[in-house]
Amino acid sequence: MAEWTGVVRALDVALLLGAEAVDMYLDSKLIVEQLHGRWRVKDAKLSVLHGEAKAQLAKMRRWSATHVPRAQNSTADRLANEALDRVAAGGPARVARARRVQPGA
Questions:
Q1: CATH no. for 2-70
Q2: Which residues fall within 8 angstroms of residue 22, CB to CB, at 6 or more apart?
Q3: Residue 85 contacts by C-beta under 8 Å, 6 or more apart in sequence?
Q4: I need a labelling partner for 43 at 20 to 30 A (CA). Which of 1, 2, 14, 99 fits?
Q5: At residue 102, does pLDDT exceed 70?
Q6: pTM for the structure as a whole
Q7: HSE (CB half, 13 Å, CA atoms) of 70?
Q8: How far apart are CA 93 and CA 102, in angstroms?
Q9: Rounded to the nearest 5°, which phi and psi values hold at 62?
Q10: Cα(27)–Cα(24) distance, rounded to whole angstroms?
Q11: CA dihedral sign, ordered 25, 88, 16, 75
Q12: Do the beta carbons of residue 35 and residue 65 sit within 8 Å?
C-alpha cells in the first residue's frame, strides 16, 4: 500500500510540475511488473491505486518504470530513511531538494 501510494503521489507531483515524461526507478519488482501489465494486481485496495497511477501515466507523453534492487540504490534508501527519521522527530513530511549537476555534465 505504501509503495503504491508513493508512486501515485510522485506522479501527482510530476504532473503538477508540468512533466510530459517520467522515468521511475523502483525497488519493487512487483510494482514495475504491474505497471507494465505483465503481472496483475490481485488486491482490490491496490487495484484502485494501480488505476490511479495508470490514469496519470496516460497523461504523459512517455514513461518508464525500471526495477533497481534496494541493495544497488543506497542513495534512495538513505533518503527514504532520512525522511522517516525526520517525520518521526516531528519534522516536515515533505522536503524539496535541488539535484546537483556536475560542471560539464
A1: 3.30.420.10
A2: 11, 14, 57, 60, 62, 63, 64
A3: none
A4: 14
A5: no
A6: 0.74
A7: 6
A8: 28
A9: -155, 145
A10: 10
A11: negative
A12: yes
Other CB atoms within 10 A of residue 90 CB: 6
Residue bearing cell 503481472: 39
> What cell was used for 99?
539535484
Whole-number pLDDT of residue 33: 97
Length of the chain as a residue count: 105
**Alpha-helical segments (H) within 1-105:** 2-16, 29-35, 44-58, 74-88
* pLDDT band, very low/low/confident/very high, at 18 (cuts 50, 70, 90): very high
Section 3-17 average pLDDT: 94
Strand partners for 22: 63
Would you kindly state where each structural domain of the chain is located, as residue ranges?
2-70
Cell triple for residue 5?
Answer: 501510494
pLDDT for 84 equals: 80
